Amino acid sequence: MARNLRLLGFLALICASLSISGAAVIRPINDAHRSAALELFVPTNGSFGSLEEAYEALRTFQIFGVEKSTEISHATCPVVAEKLGSSSFISKDLFLALRVNSILGCQIDARTFEDVASKLQAVIKNASSLVDFHYGVEGLLHIKDQGISVALSDADGTFHSIKALSQSDGRWRYDSNSAESSTYAAGIALETLAGVVSLADKDVDQSKIGIVKHDIIKLFDSIKSYDDGTLYFDEKHVDASEYKGPLATSASVIRGVTAFAKVASGRLNIPSDKMLGLAKFFLSIGIPGCTKDLFNQIESLSHLEDNRVSIPLILSLPSTVLSLTTRDQLKVEVTTVLGSAAPPLTVSLVQAFRSDSKDTPVLENQELQFDSENTIHYLDIIPLKLDAGKYKLMFEISLHDPENLNTYATAGRTSVMAFITGSINIGKAEIGIFDSDSGKSEALQKLDLSRDSALSLAANHLQKLHLSFQLTTPLGHHFKPHQVLLKLRHETNVEHIFVMESSARQFKIVLDFLSLVEKFYYLSGKYEIELTVGDAAMENSFLRALGHIELDLPKPPEKAARPPPLPVDPYSRFGPKQEIAHIFREPERRPPKELSLTFLALTLLPFVGFLIGLMRLGVNLKSFPSSVVPASFSILFHAGIAAVLLLYVLFWLKLDLFTTLKVLGFLGVFLVFVGHRTLSHHASATAKLKSS
Amino acid sequence: MHPLGLYLTSFSYQEIEKKLRMAKSTSSDAQMLIRSLRTAYAATPTNLKIIDLYVVYAIVTAVIQVVYMGVVGSFPFNSFLSGVLSCVGTAVLAVCLRIQVNKENKEFKDLPPERAYADFILCNLVLHLVIMNFLG
Q: Are B79 and B123 found together in one domain?
């Protein structure tokens, strides 16, 4: 038996070593997740909105070891008690309430539990859909955990009914009517079957359990993978109405499989690298931003933490950047997914490759030492004579106890990218101008690139600029950084950037201005020189101002390219806009005031002439009536006409038409009356005169 | 009938012809024509002369306004129209009054002159209301 187990373990090791997992940057769950959980699961006045959300929050807090607050209990327990005490038969409500109660431990008396248990047993008896079975069985399990004795009477029958909904590819249907099978449903079904087995008063038929184990193996055949070695479960068709996404689906499957593995005797033949791949999937999503995702992640990882199939062990580096200057050590951590200690094991650095030579390893088979105080494996890299640069490190875990091979899942080889940084020496820096015909380096001057310089060079278009220097690593090798750039910037902010090439162990650039005249847009003047050298493995990357160079270039011909327009400050669009000059209608040219007044006087002249003419004609008032009454009427008549004319003047000056018409109406009536009297009197007077 | 034609009925055609026949040259013809016009005109009644004077006054005012417009341009055109039309309108009404008041005019024999005068006043008042409204 032990030999068989050892053979199996050896086979597993070979299988595991053949699979080299990709480079996934994953770390086990740490305090960052804990604080994220505390930030996301925030109750409003102690309650979480719904029992489902309350359960997610409470379960996450339970896994992180966060103390239950009395405020939450005070707010949620009454809801739980009300749901359990009500006479409703909705199995979902009972299930949710029981789930929350199992964490909160509200004061519910045994009678209530027994009532609920009998209700749930009736639900199971009449159930036809998977979710009904699930709510009933899981509810009964929670009641059993409270200490009430419950048992499923017809466990075999229930088991058979649930099993009947399974499909050949390991998935489950939700009920006998639905045509589509779902992986999420498979997780629920496995969890329910595990519940049935643990609730059964007599043992369930072992052959049935064996069939379910086969179903699980088939389900794991449909697992999907990403390029970085993580594995996950997803539905076959992503447009189904019940689609829940890979995170929720994988969480459901893990819940079901780990629950089933607990109750089934014997082992589930799931390859350990699949469990490890699933663990890596949950760890690679980082810290989710929403409560449901965080709950699914943490709950699945807590199931993986101590499951009966195989417990994944995660190898991670607390820091992937090691400095030669501060003499860092290479540190490696091996823990379970939630950060608990791993069994005794040894980590060895199997191979280390430099990023520029991927075929030949620079290091092989270095065993890491174990620091039991900090539970960390470490290796001194200084004696290994590793130079600065980017490395791919391949680690292998070997468990001390061969029995643990069945319990724990370790990857064959884990590869991690790491940087070893160091201080790069810059030496033999020279700069100079020389004529193109004489290639001698007489005019070269030494340059100190450890600080800014203030050189003042001058060149015309027939000359060349020469700059060269050497870069060496702490171990004395030639270093090729990622960026070696020379920039020339004109006074008008037109920039030209040149990449320096490395040849014969030095970096050199020769700027032949004759060929660059067009590129520089024929702009003569002062150019600032800047040198940039940078790399991720270089601790002293720099940007140095070297000084300036006065360039004398020929005049641009007519068809030369203009320098590109300088980039406009992007914030200038928020500044004030150009002022718009509106064109208004020109006011009419009015005549000068004196002219108008002159003509006003001229217009009044004819009136004067009229009056003079009247006098010359001998106008008199002889026929004005002499007696009082007709005289008064005459006066009133003339006054009335004068009043109307005055009204017209007022109308022109300030009144409006309606007021004028109103007043004119009254005046008109008055005038008609008075005028009639006056004129009829005058007419009779004239007639009397004629007849006499 | 045309007012000018009625104007001329105040003195006889025959006298003019006689005087014209007696004329020897065209310039003296014109002078004699003007002289005869003046003497004939002196015979018209005073009230008609007052009305004629009023008409002349109105027309002269209108002409002055037109000259002003010619000088400065017709910018507030409504004002110009209003001014000119008030002068022309009142001149027309005065001519109508003259026709109705003229004793030698057989057509309006039965119309009392006071009635004509009242019509003249009323029409002028209405005209000037409209003019004031249009003056702006």
A: yes
**Residues B19 and B76 reside in one and the same domain:** no
Q: Which residues of A touch B118 (CB under 8 A)?
A: 675-676, 679
Return the residue of B nearest to A604 by Cα.
Answer: B61
Same-domain status, B79 and B125: yes
Do B74 and B136 fall into the same domain? Answer: yes
* Beta-sheet pairing, A321-323 with A414-421: parallel
Quote the domain boundaries for residue B35: 1-43
Residues B51 and B38 both lie in one domain = no
Strands (E), A146-277: 172-173, 181-182, 224-225, 231-232
Digits of tens for pLDDT over chain B (136 positions)? Answer: 455 555 555 556 666 776 666 655 677 888 999 999 988 888 888 888 999 999 999 999 999 999 999 988 888 899 999 999 999 999 999 999 999 998 888 888 888 888 899 999 999 999 999 999 998 7
The token duo for A632 is: 């008064």
Residues listed for chain B: 136
- Tell me the C-alpha distance between A641 and A45, whole Å: 90
Structure token digits, residue A201: 């008063």
Rounded Cα distance, A650 and A333, in Å: 105
Q: Which of A235, A238, A320, A336 is nearest to A280 (CA)?
A: A336
Same domain, B57 and B4: no
**Minimum Cα–Cα distance from A599: chain B residue:** B68
Q: B132 with B86, same domain?
A: yes
| Paired residues of B42 in beta bridges | none
Complex-level ipTM: 0.78
User: Is A581 in CB contact (< 8 Å) with chain B?
Assistant: no
The span from the CA of A526 to the CA of A524, in Å, is: 7
Same domain flag for B134 and B106 = yes
Contact call for A644 and B125, based on CB within 8 A: yes
